[in-house]
Amino acid sequence: MKSIGIVANPKKPKAKKSIQKIILWAKRNKIDCFFSDELKNLISKKEKLLPLSTLSNESEIMMSLGGDGTMLKTARAVGRGGNPILGINLGSLGFITETTSKNLDNALRKLLKKEYQIEKRMVLKAKIDKKNQPSMFALNDVVIDKGGVARLIQMHLYDGEDFVCSYSADGLIISTPTGSTAYSLATGGPIINPKTNAIIVAPICPHTLASRPIIFSENHHLKIVVECDKRDALFTVDGQIDKKLISGDSVLVSKARHTVNLIKFPGSSFYSVLRKKLHWGARPSIEE
């Protein structure tokens, strides 16, 4: 390993201390460090700053210091590059991150000795079906919702050319297995092992008792047609990028060709994370 790129949430109290620890470790092991330019106030002027959009071009491995939001931001910056990403949680939940600032020394040791595996995570490709609209990519989910108005919108779901159903709801979540433990879970969506490739469609507050989440295989191409009268709806990618939709707009969603490659250490388990962070399977305790 010759170089690493560091993305961090500068608002996290533990960010500066963790970054300094990584800098010292990298210097001892003759590894070049490159930093996202938003970290300029946390590091000395002699360190190498780069725009987030080009950081992965100079970095063999990416490190993401923060929470899941920082991980999603890092994954989007890497894009098709495929650089492995190590997530270091500096926040509370950090469901996608692999380790914590408390275990940083041990993580760096394993990284140097290459005691890790690469876990490929499926990515969604989403696009508004209009001329000159760019494709966007989501590690977690794509969401279509009613925006700031407390009123239902109509959405019509197609699987290729086949009409699936119509939704009268606050919105619709189209999720990856990685995103199945995020917003989709809050709507009653299923938990799917992130090594599985599938697409989950889950309505948000549907105005019916008969509407439930549905799972499609990875090769299906979905289209959602929006009806929202004279007001705008909102199209959001990984909770970080949004675009307005008008009535009649269609959103196309399918599996992307590239994956996000996460660094995983031996003994890491999706199910242990479920138990620890979401209290999966825990029985309620009654204190007298």
Describe the protein.
This protein is an alpha/beta fold and 288 residues long. 17% of the residues lie in helices and 38% in strands. It has six helices and 18 strands. The chain has helices at 15-28, 52-55, 68-78, 104-112, 183-186, 270-277; strands at 3-8, 32-36, 48-50, 61-66, 85-89, 99-100, 117-128, 136-138, 141-145, 153-159, 162-169, 171-175, 198-204, 214-217, 222-227, 233-237, 241-245, 250-264. Helix 3 links the parallel strand 4 (61-66) and strand 5 (85-89). The chain is globular, with a radius of gyration of 20 Å.
Which key features would you list for this structure?
6-stranded parallel beta sheet, single chain, Tumour Suppressor Smad4, 17% helix, Rossmann fold, 6-stranded antiparallel beta sheet, 2 domains, 38% strand, alpha/beta, 6 helices, globular, 288 residues
Class based on secondary structure composition and strand pairing: alpha/beta
Strand order across the largest sheet: 3-2-1-4-5-6
Percent of sequence in beta strands: 35-45%
CATH architectural label of the largest domain: Sandwich
Gross geometry:
globular
Quickly name the level 1 CATH class of the largest domain. Mainly Beta
Helix content: 10-25%
Fill in the CATH topology of the largest domain: Tumour Suppressor Smad4
Average the pLDDT over all residues and give the rounded result.
93
Helical region count?
6
Number of DSSP E strands: 18
Kindly report how far apart the N and C termini lie: 55 Å
Q: Sheet with the most strands?
A: 6 strands, parallel
List the helices and strands in order. EHEEHEHEEHEEEEEEHEEEEEEH
Number of domains: 2
